[in-house]
Every structure is written in C-alpha cells, then in structure tokens.
Amino acid sequence: MKARQKRFIFLLGGMIALGATIALVLNAMQGNLSYFFSPTEVAEGKAPLDRNFRLGGLVEAGSFKRMGSDLTVTFVVTDEKRRVPVQYTGILPDLFKEGQGMIAQGKMGPGGIFMADEVLAKHDEEYMPPEVAEALAKGHQEGSAKMRDAQSQPL
Q1: Is 80 exposed, middle or buried (0-12, 13-18, 19+ CB in 10 A)?
Q2: What is the CATH number of the domain that holds 96?
Q3: Who wins on pLDDT, 50 or 79?
Q4: 68 burial class (0-12, 13-18, 19+ CB within 10 angstroms)?
Q5: How far is 57 from 123, CA to CA, in rounded Å?
Q6: What range defines the domain where residue 71 resides?
Q7: Both 60 and 119 in a single domain?
Q8: Looking at the structure, do residues 6 and 19 belong to the same domain, yes or no?
Q9: Is the domain of 86 the same as that of 69?
Q10: Are the CB atoms for 87 and 143 separated by under 8 Å?
Q11: pTM of the model
C-alpha cells in the first residue's frame, strides 16, 4: 500500500469516527430536552403523549384539591383559553398557590390528566417565566376577540 492510500484510509476512518461521535452526542442531548407547551397547545394535541414536557400557566382559582392524607394533589392549569388538569405527588413549593404562575414537568396520563413529576412556582411578585407570559398573553388576546365577536352578534 502506498503512503497516499494509507492517509486516505486513516482520514476516512477518522471521519467515520467523528460522525459516529456527533450522532451519539446529538441522540443523548435529544433525550434530555424538555419542551414547553401551554394548555392550549396541549389541548390541541401538539404536545407529545409519550415523552416528558413542561406545562405552564396559571393555577386556576378553586381548582386545588388534596387527595386524602397523602401528598397527592390535583389542580387545573390554564392560559385563560384552555384548561389542563394536573396531578402531582410530592411536596409543593412554598410559593405555590391558586392564581399564580407555575411550570410543571411530566407527561400526559390517562384521561387527559397531566401527571407531573416536578412543580415549579414563580419566585417573586414580578417574575413569570417568559413562555408562560407569552402563552397567557396569546390566550388572553384570543379570548378577548371571541368575547367581542359574541357580543357583536344579535341574540
């Protein structure tokens, strides 16, 4: 074998190894990604059913219920357009309460209930995650447009 052929084989082997390494890294990163979805996107079926994702919005007033004496709670998350029921087993953050912004991580369970593994609450009066603020603003605009249309139609 000539030196030129050896260099070509070495270069080809290096490129194959580099490609395999990049493919493995991208595959590992894809498995750890957790995308954000609003209640409207979840209700429209845009959220994955078989993977973890984040659900964010406001905890609907009057929807919080504790299931017996254990740590399981249920509540409803809304973006003022659509609602998604959530079930969580664990200790809630101190700042978690109805009417406040929150993000839950988990996946959809049977009956359209979001089964949360983790719940995060906003941490001061001014802060709201950008994704939640955007989803709420979008839901509020669409809800206001529907109200105007309904009011303008004769009975």
Answers
A1: buried
A2: 2.40.50.140
A3: 79
A4: exposed
A5: 14
A6: 36-152
A7: yes
A8: yes
A9: yes
A10: no
A11: 0.63
